[in-house]
Amino acid sequence: MDKVGVWLIGARGSVATTATAGAAAIKAGLAPPQGCVTESPHFPATLVPLAGLVFGGHDITETPLRKRAEQLGRAGVVPPHLPDLIAADLDAADAEIRPGHVPSHVPSHVSGDVPGDVPGDRDQAAAAARLGDDIAAFRTRHRLARVVVVNVSSTEPPAADRPEFARLADLEERLAAGDDVLPPSSLYAYAAFQAGCGYVEFTPSTGPTLPALAELAALRQVPYAGRDGKTGETLVKSALAPMFASRALRVRSWSGLNLLGGGDGATLADPAARSSKQLSKDQVVAGVFDEPVEGQTHIDFVADLGEWKTAWDHVTFEGFLGVRMALQFTWQGCDSALAAPLVLDLARLVARAHEKGRHGPLPELGYFFKNPLGGGEHALAAQYARLRAFAEELS
Amino acid sequence: MDKVGVWLIGARGSVATTATAGAAAIKAGLAPPQGCVTESPHFPATLVPLAGLVFGGHDITETPLRKRAEQLGRAGVVPPHLPDLIAADLDAADAEIRPGHVPSHVPSHVSGDVPGDVPGDRDQAAAAARLGDDIAAFRTRHRLARVVVVNVSSTEPPAADRPEFARLADLEERLAAGDDVLPPSSLYAYAAFQAGCGYVEFTPSTGPTLPALAELAALRQVPYAGRDGKTGETLVKSALAPMFASRALRVRSWSGLNLLGGGDGATLADPAARSSKQLSKDQVVAGVFDEPVEGQTHIDFVADLGEWKTAWDHVTFEGFLGVRMALQFTWQGCDSALAAPLVLDLARLVARAHEKGRHGPLPELGYFFKNPLGGGEHALAAQYARLRAFAEELS
Amino acid sequence: MDKVGVWLIGARGSVATTATAGAAAIKAGLAPPQGCVTESPHFPATLVPLAGLVFGGHDITETPLRKRAEQLGRAGVVPPHLPDLIAADLDAADAEIRPGHVPSHVPSHVSGDVPGDVPGDRDQAAAAARLGDDIAAFRTRHRLARVVVVNVSSTEPPAADRPEFARLADLEERLAAGDDVLPPSSLYAYAAFQAGCGYVEFTPSTGPTLPALAELAALRQVPYAGRDGKTGETLVKSALAPMFASRALRVRSWSGLNLLGGGDGATLADPAARSSKQLSKDQVVAGVFDEPVEGQTHIDFVADLGEWKTAWDHVTFEGFLGVRMALQFTWQGCDSALAAPLVLDLARLVARAHEKGRHGPLPELGYFFKNPLGGGEHALAAQYARLRAFAEELS
Amino acid sequence: MDKVGVWLIGARGSVATTATAGAAAIKAGLAPPQGCVTESPHFPATLVPLAGLVFGGHDITETPLRKRAEQLGRAGVVPPHLPDLIAADLDAADAEIRPGHVPSHVPSHVSGDVPGDVPGDRDQAAAAARLGDDIAAFRTRHRLARVVVVNVSSTEPPAADRPEFARLADLEERLAAGDDVLPPSSLYAYAAFQAGCGYVEFTPSTGPTLPALAELAALRQVPYAGRDGKTGETLVKSALAPMFASRALRVRSWSGLNLLGGGDGATLADPAARSSKQLSKDQVVAGVFDEPVEGQTHIDFVADLGEWKTAWDHVTFEGFLGVRMALQFTWQGCDSALAAPLVLDLARLVARAHEKGRHGPLPELGYFFKNPLGGGEHALAAQYARLRAFAEELS
């Protein structure tokens, strides 16, 4: 079976490192494929095996992947002894990481360790060409049938709309004029599409959601999926909200507080980035219920939590004859460990969809996302049924 | 459209009183049908309207229904002013309540207010005949097309198996000999079937689950459903367990503590009755996961909670590369308010199934139960899809 | 024993209505004095008896107290049948309520039901004179030895500092010039002090905390206490924080989300007012621990909660050899029911302190407040010991 | 300053290993003394320094302490790299561990790894002599001024009362006759007292609580303290219960579920041992409130939790005018890490009390225990104040 490339934007981040290390561990028989949805017996065997995935990517930092894996070992995200056992795989993936594009407005706490010698791209047009070349060279070097680009970098603030986002011709005209108009995630999506690759937007960033990029994906016949991996609190919401709906219990309020440590938490300490995430998180409740539901979702950075996250949700609902009742839950998870196997799932599914000639958004992958591109429902079980049907159809 | 009778075993209990009062309130336009699953637009209009339900039943206590409704008003289960507004309906239902059969082993805290003049039945054979006559007379008196008997009385201890439970002929031989061999819930199911009525076992009691009674249901061509209404903690379990399963997250332990006030809590303070409930509650987790899951579910009687219930569940699970995570939830509900609309749903659905010629257990109603008779899955969304298909099929 | 007047700013609000109704209920033997700290046998009998309290106050709305009590009965804050039983007392208190001063910047959702005919005060100088006269007349009318003014009105935004707040002479010069420089709560404190009354700032508003007002309290020899009644989440914090401190467990983060319905929640939906409350809530953790503790306290308005409040707190702490552990709690309380008995306690204690010649801030009452005026510690048990010693000293 | 010996019963268990490793780590400057109550600046410097503690003990297993420390490193109880850094101290303590007495009824899951060559003691009289000799030899070998024996072994079932427990003479007569009448913990206390050592009962076992042993402690002029270290859920209870009491809020129910992994959890899976623990846990609530409080505390063994423990408590309480409110908390702690520093605190305090001539029970140490011997209150802050006064008095 053909090998498939997984090209990670933010390739030295926690999610990417965990995904790379995990694929190596599973390949080596050091861990079961727990958390990988498509490894379940409910899925056909026609997807590329985990051992057939080859890793590379872009990142703006230079910390070696092995060192990052050791940090995650100390933080309890991966077993402490694992990095040593899979050192060769980590080094191989490390050798396939190329410098990311450094956007001028990246917050200093994220770009803090960007070394001085990252080759600056003249402008976004030059960057897009260079980034695309990096991916294409990776594909050639490893004789890969297909590469799927997955964005697992830091969340961006919502992008203001611009007239040139509406049509590809207008967008390319602006880029050709040397104007840097794209949000970083959209620049990567542009480069991926131009290089003929499928793309997964695993963050709440803009990515491929501009009409001009949809036009490009159609032109290049490439599929894409997103947005914002559904890994923790929102996953639980999408399991519980349909429960209330089917029982005709009227949800009156749904409030939440997310406490996040780690790099993701630090990024989300920035109110602009946080607003992207909050908008994304509010989709599920709004998407399941007909009537408006009161309540807000807060996100706090709590450095002490490290790579861990604690979320508390409080739901009030009304039952028979107006009786008020309440449900609350506390979720304590490790976001990188929850996201990493889904990255592997998505790479396999998007590669297969690409192979089968699918292009444009893949709403059938809504199961994985807080804010499914291409529409579709938010109820988890219905999303899962659709995913299984899709996998069947692709086989 | 033909009217349908709802004959409640435990007709003066909290669930029965709430169901009777609620149907009257909805009929009078005093409350929306919140909590009634079959009132949702997803269900066909071919079921009997709520206004077409007529109430009666058996009970071993004599407190008038209006007084019971007022008690529930003070406890916050029904709006405090409601009983006055629907007094005529409560009195009408009250007039249709006949003395229940008093089993010799009923715990004193349940039978405490049984007045001395309840007509004692000579033995179970006499009781079955009398109970069946009560139901048949109700059907005739109101010219009802069909009556559905619903057991919402106190939970019984698990019944020891007996040889005569295996075949109807043997069972009837024993009854004819004057032996009282049936658990009370099974006696009511026997009487219901003999009277040609469908039956719903809303408690974890034995009810219609004896092979001899299945034989009788087949003979009389009547349908039945059960067991143990899924109203609170277990409902949430059946929404969350499939979430873990589909995400390939391995659940390692699931522990719970249920704090219950009210009559149900008092009954369950009896270890034997509690064991019926606990067995029933453990079905969901065992039914969803392939591998065994550690943990116990405790039930405590806390009188101070009145008609309310608080349950805490704690789940540990293992994700990618063995990382351990946890979810906990607290459910604060009013069991009677959660159960009552389901009683109305079940009466409508069983009546319609009966009308359409269905007999024997109805596994399509598994959505409503902790321990679905006739088999079927425990995942809530799948149960709901099956229920909708069934309702469609009946229309 | 002399009677004591309790003059409530916000006399028709939930806290004031509950306090007035509760004192009447206890006097009539309809309820035990549960929640009243000074009714415990640990306190000397020299305080004025609850039956010796006479109620009056200012408010900007005109809803009769009896109607407000009925509303609270429906909301479950007071027993539903209580208002009828104490109607005479409610009407008597109602007759002693005078129009409050309407500040120009009061948010419309609070002042919405202010009727057109509230007598407008020309300026703050005129208002202060009129408000003081109202209180003095009440004292004379009922031959009260002393009146304690208690502010239980809506929370104000923090007040910007002004040069004239520093000295009484400067402040009075500005008022005499017709300038409206005082925040509303400080205007009431000014009027109370001028009328020779003790004052309790039960809200987080500025109230008596301006140096010019401290000067006035000294001049008039009146005592005062505050600030921000410690009724729920912060009460628990002040019990738990010293536990960690004494055990040498290092608290690393303390985060919280408060969900509030009712009028208080609506006021706090205004970010400016909310910031007063948040500042106040953060005092306890900062006051108990030597080292800084990460984390924020959020306040959300959730209308569906009515008069109830749910707060969730999450604490991470470090123990022996750096091991990380966590505590979380959920508090579900009724703020008015928690605050009302403390209002009675405070009125009794401040009246007695006044009688005994105490003036200026009373730090011995820190037990009751989130942000004790006059300094003192935040640990609850230490505050309680100090309170008991103070009560002993006053007897 | 004189050195002090800490002789641990269960010296290879999790608590003992953590205490031994922690004292070495603090001595070496590898960790701050977090969690050690007596290291706070509130305590006088007259206690023996942590570096002056010398460790030894009895145990029925032979796993070397260094290996046990490595296990705890993998479980996250001590830093993973610590055991290597303090190997010499661990080995030194290991060399001071002598075979424990093997009681005939020890459950097999505890004694499972008892090797065949543990020298069996002929009977309890012989055992007491041998155990006492072990301790005395340790004291001589290290020229220790004093040795404190601390029982941190597995919890025993409650012991049935026996007539010979009432008087020392009777007890010794039975022992001399070769009768094994003492529960194991009491045998160790007997040996400790006979050897002239202070004793701490850190478990809920019987230990020194027999009248005959109190007589012996008086005779030998040795102090003792206990019972059942207050490390987690009960600690929180003793901080919260006085909060309710001082606020005159009437607690109506207090329910709890403790989920424990590890060796302690396994021992407590035995219903008899569990009942000792539950009795102990129920002391606090009963000790703080005048009126009875409904509710039970459950203890479940959940192997998946490893060395960690999760406890959920649910409290209902009644406030002003009978309003019902609720508090719930979830505690997630590591029992060994919570207990170990208290063992060090207790050894220092008991040694100092011994030096100062105190003998018999030390109620001033009630702060550390669920069930304080010698009486005294259960309110945490009051216990802490008493502890500080005691430390002051000893200095």
Q: Distance N terminus to C terminus of chain A?
A: 13 Å
The helicity of chain A comes to: 40-55%
Order of helices and strands of chain A: EHEHHHEHHEHHEHEHEHHHEEEHEH
The main pleated sheet of chain A reads as: 7 strands, parallel
Please list the strands of the largest sheet of chain A in the order they lie side by side.
Answer: 3-2-1-4-5-6-11
Number of helices of chain A: 15
Q: Which CATH top level class of the largest domain in chain A fits?
A: Alpha Beta
CATH topology label of the largest domain in chain A: Rossmann fold
- State the total count of DSSP E strands of chain A: 11
Radius of gyration of chain A: 20 Å
Mean pLDDT of chain A, rounded to whole units?
A: 92
- Portion of residues in beta strands of chain A equals 15-25%
Determine the oligomeric state from the structure: homotetramer
Morphology of chain A? globular
Largest interface: A-B, 54 and 54 residues
Features:
homotetramer, 395 residues, alpha/beta, Rossmann fold, Dihydrodipicolinate Reductase, domain 2, 2 domains, 7-stranded parallel beta sheet, 4-stranded mixed beta sheet, 15 helices, 11 strands, 18% strand, globular
Q: How would you sum up this structure, described in words?
A:
The structure is a homotetramer of 395-residue chains. Chain A is an alpha/beta fold. Chain A has 15 helices and eleven strands. In chain A, the strands form two sheets. The first copy, chain A, has a seven-stranded parallel sheet with strand order 3-2-1-4-5-6-11, with helices on both faces. Chain A has a four-stranded mixed sheet with strand order 8-7-9-10. Chains in contact: A-B, A-C, A-D, B-C, B-D, C-D. At the A-B interface, α1, α10, β10, α14 and α15 of A face α1, α10, β10, α14 and α15 of B. β10 of chain C pairs antiparallel with β10 of chain D.
